[in-house]
Amino acid sequence: MADILLDIQELTKSYTNGGTETKVLHGIDFQVDRGSFSAIIGPSGSGKSTLLNLLGALDRPTGGRIIVDGSDIVTMNDRELAAFRNRKIGFVFQFHHLLPEFTAVENVMMPHWIASGKPAAKTRKKAEELVDLVGLGERGHFKASRLSGGQQQRIAIARSLMNDPSLVLADEPTGNLDSETTEQIFALMERIRSERQATFLIITHDRHIAARSERVVELIDGRVARIVANPAAAQEDSWLDLAPSHCLLAQQKPAASQ
Ligand SMILES: Nc1ncnc2c1ncn2[C@@H]1O[C@H](COP(=O)(O)OP(=O)(O)OP(=O)(O)O)[C@@H](O)[C@H]1O
Ligand SMILES: [Mg+2]
After folding, report:
1. How far apart are CA 168 and CA 41, in angstroms?
2. For the chain, percent helix, then strand, then coil, each to nearest 5?
3. The pLDDT value given to residue 245
4. Best mutation site among 11, 13, 23, 24 for ligand 1, i.e. most ligand atoms within 8 A of its Cβ?
5. Domains along the sequence of the chain with CATH
6. How far is CA 84 from CA 55, 73, 215, in A?
7. pLDDT beyond 50 at 247
8. Which atom of ligand 1 approaches the CA of 205 most closely?
């Protein structure tokens, strides 16, 4: 039987601005297995970041349930939610959000400082090990501002692992990187998943990354349009072609005459 880490039920989100309500998520249901690598795809504005922010407890839903490791985070108070976020969730953003004046290792230590309030020698050692894990051991003492975009993103991934999260959420982690660096970052995340039994849920516009994940959830207009399990085994074109509204897929689709 599959071990379900994340169970999303009838999740809705609306924003109210100046008395006008905008519904962004209209009832999302899906599950994520522990230790799996899933991708969320969908057109711009379909609600991908909104969903990820709810799952990472950065924002609160309007309705529904988000059950992580058996606990519904929607019913938690702010203090419980902050503790949940620190202990269970690792977040990787498209723009790495490193602190430029701090070194790579210090940036990786940051979530632990926030969670524990007291940086100890063993915290530093763990941060150094994570910097090693992402292949930047010799640059651990570099200030973040002296690292390349791809290196900074590696550090952001190392930072997301600092509190041994059950779930790593990444919002377009390779969105501003070239294709070779994208490939390296993806391979790194895959390796971390298998070595550390972490669970990854990533938003991507990159069809190759989506096709190589274990499960693809496609959002369209705030609804789950499709879930594709094991897309690499499925005929790639057949499942990607079903989504003409997806901006990148439309760009990359071969001409009909070819
Ligand atoms: N604070 C807010 N107030 C009102 N509407 C919002 C707010 N945040 C997001 N939205 C709306 O919610 C919808 C979904 O936005 P979201 O950022 O989740 O899309 P996305 O799928 O991540 O898009 P992209 O691929 O461009 O990042 C958009 O129409 C957006 O305008
Ligand atoms: Mg987004």
Report:
1. 16
2. 40, 25, 35
3. 41
4. 24
5. 37-46+77-218+225-252 (3.40.50.300)
6. 11, 8, 25
7. no
8. 25
